[in-house]
Design brief:
Distance between the termini: 20 Å
Structural class: alpha+beta
Number of helices: 9
Strand content: 5-15%
Strand order of the largest sheet: 3-2-1-6-5-4
């Protein structure tokens, strides 16, 4: 299995998007006029689903959409005409619809939008999702001080994204990572992150010959898996979104072996 399954061009696009999202996230956190208080939250539910106020102002979201559009065009100029059809004359109602359906990852809504405007099927959701991520990351920053107290079965305790990736530190501590909101938190106990089964011998591991930093943790009970990355250089700072892409070959291995929810 070749670890380099994602093209260099696509990785470069994602790196630029990641930098932009981080920069915008920092600005958003400074401008947010509300706080997230631990005492207002249920530790068994994702933070995002419990917020009383939207963390995504329409004006800032539209600005993020335009920035992602610019980055996309700089990499694939042939998308310019499609993107113009998609983003020109967006109304406030359109923007709020994008925010709502991007948060819930409503694929059907964006596929319908692509068909209506005769666009590449992937384009509307890609644009809406990457414009949303700085705001998700803003919620993660505001929740950082208490997120390790949360235990949400099978999903990110901040945004509710299903588990896909974890980092292993030199002390063998496992840190789960969300590639959507960039939350990182310690795993509470040795158990399946998907179903919670903590019986001894429940988990087994698949090693990858071509990548000695990576392995796949598989649960015998629910048949799901988690990608594990050993952080050899503890000073290395790389977004979970990029790590998730760089380890796409692990998903292929796991799914070829019959593991994962969709199997």
């Amino acid at each position: 299995m070749n670890p380099n399954v994602v093209s260099e061009e696509y990785m470069e696009l994602q790196k630029q998007l990641s930098v932009h999202q981080k920069q915008l996230c920092n600005s958003i956190v400074l401008s947010m006029d509300f706080t997230i208080r631990r005492e207002d939250l249920n530790a068994g539910l994702p933070v995002l689903s419990q917020l009383k106020y939207t963390p995504v102002p329409a004006g800032l979201y539209l600005m993020a959409v335009k920035k992602v559009e610019t980055i996309l065009i700089s990499h694939q100029n042939e998308l310019k005409e499609e993107l113009n059809r998609l983003t020109t004359n967006l109304t406030e109602e359109d923007v709020y619809s994008w925010i709502k359906h991007a948060i819930t990852f409503n694929t059907e809504y964006f596929q319908g939008l692509a068909e209506k405007k005769q666009l590449s099927p992937w384009l509307p959701q890609f644009l809406a999702e990457h414009a949303l991520r700085p705001f998700m990351q803003g919620v993660a920053v505001l929740s950082q001080s208490f997120i390790n107290e949360f235990d949400v079965m099978g999903t990110c305790p901040c945004c509710g994204e299903p588990h896909r990736l974890a980092k292993l530190a030199s002390n063998e501590q496992k840190y789960l990572c969300c590639s959507r909101c960039e939350t990182q938190w310690k795993q509470h106990k040795v158990s399946c992150v998907h179903c919670g089964d903590d019986r001894k011998g429940n988990l087994f591991y698949i090693s990858i010959l071509e990548d000695n930093r990576a392995k796949i943790e598989v649960c015998r009970t629910c048949n799901n898996y988690l990608k594990l990355i050993t952080m050899i250089d503890q000073t290395e700072v790389k977004s979970a979104a990029l790590l998730d892409l760089e380890t796409l070959h692990l998903d292929f291995v796991a799914q070829e072996e019959g593991f994962g929810k969709d199997i």
